[in-house]
């Protein structure tokens, strides 16, 4: 069983996004960024269908409040 890769920090994701803008990101960095986006999309979809917390419920759902 393969170990899951640790999640990237927001700083690392911002650096990857910057590299993507100038076409300098590696395939691994692109995959990491797309994994993050996919995870975020699924969390937002879950939170919006079960919005128990009002308009800022998505922030509560992912632990930002």
Question: How would you portray this structure in words?
Answer:
The protein is an all-alpha fold. The chain has a domain at 26-49 and 57-65. The protein contains three helices and no strands. It has helices at residues 10-21, 27-49, 57-61. Helix 1 (10-21) packs across helix 2 (27-49). The chain starts with 9 loop residues before the first helix and ends with a helix. The mean pLDDT is 78.
Secondary structure layout plus pairing:
Layout: H1 10-21, H2 27-49, H3 57-61
Helix pairs in contact: 1-2
Secondary structure class reads mainly alpha
Radius of gyration, in Å, reads 14 Å
| Biggest pleated-sheet summary | none
Number of E-state strands = 0
List keywords for this structure.
about 60 residues, mainly alpha
What is the gist of this entry?
This protein has 65 residues and is an all-alpha fold. It contains three helices and no strands.
């Amino acid at each position: 069983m393969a170990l899951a890769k640790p999640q990237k920090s927001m700083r690392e994701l911002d650096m990857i996004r910057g590299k993507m803008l100038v076409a300098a990101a590696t395939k691994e960095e692109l995959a990491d960024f797309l994994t993050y986006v996919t995870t975020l999309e699924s969390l937002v979809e879950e939170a919006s269908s079960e919005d128990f917390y009002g308009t800022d419920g998505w922030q509560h759902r992912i632990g930002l409040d």
